[in-house]
Amino acid sequence: MKVLLTGATGFVGAAVLRRLLAEGIDVRIxxxxxxxxxxxxxLPIEVxxxxxxxxxxMKQAVSGCRALFHVAADYRxxxxxxxxxxxxxxxxxxxxxxxxxxxxxERIVYTSSVAVLGLRPDGQxxxxxxxxxxxxxxxxxxxxxxxxxxxxxxxxxEAGLPAIIVNPSTPIGPGDxxxxxxxxxxRDAIAGKIPAYVDTGLNIVHVDDVAQGHWLAFKHGKIxxxxxxxxxxxxxxxxxxxxxxxxxRSPPMLCLPRFVLYPLAAGAQAWIHLRGRxxxxxxxxxxxxxxxxxxxxxxxxxxxxxxxxRPAEHAFVDAVQWFQENPCPRGVTGK
Length: 335
Fold this sequence. Notes:
This protein has eleven helices and twelve strands.
């Protein structure tokens, strides 16, 4: 069986590629035109260049394939031009899905995010049924992913798109080379560059467990359903403390109220706008997101897919080791 994989040059996509190859799958990866794919030489894969927004490219990309893993996305929490993000995450997804429908693909795994799900005001773990609306989405990344997932649901209902949706939580682990916004947090924490924290929480999962969840969704998932691929719910204080301890650094001791950080975030964004490059260390949207604990339950995936996850400590250790061995510059990325 030949499978098309998008996003293989990103953090989660590379992990999915490793999983597919371990399962003996014949993989074709899609990379952007003019891009030199940082894929290890010698892997038994086919590399095809194409643009998500080009229907002709997408028709060629899915030709001869029986299944699709669509992992690619523009994953940034701050963007100078949000229209680019909407084009890739929403319109690009629709273009690819239409090509998949026309080609008669048998099975599709679409990588969404827990970012599109609702959060519980009591701080307890949310699940796939926790209600959310577009108006609840903070920032362009969340809005674009919410809109894209809505389109996937619509195509499943109206056009018979054979798609299963997976919603990873906050992946951490080796290989976050660009890095992702979460990877920047890990890198800065182990470098001693995060002296304080806010009172919030995240669901931490090893990136390889997310990849395994993609494979299990492909094998056992129900068409039109979504599955949270998460791990442990942990406070931000605990996360930053463990990362610092593993790296031999002093952990942050100061808990700051959000209102103190809003002017700093606004100033940082204004400075980046003036410079025309770079990424703010903290953004207004990130602060708004921390107003609720981002805790989630993977019970549905565990029950229906056979999904399981290792302790978050494994993700911390692997991520710290990888960043220490592979220092990378500050930058912006996608999945």
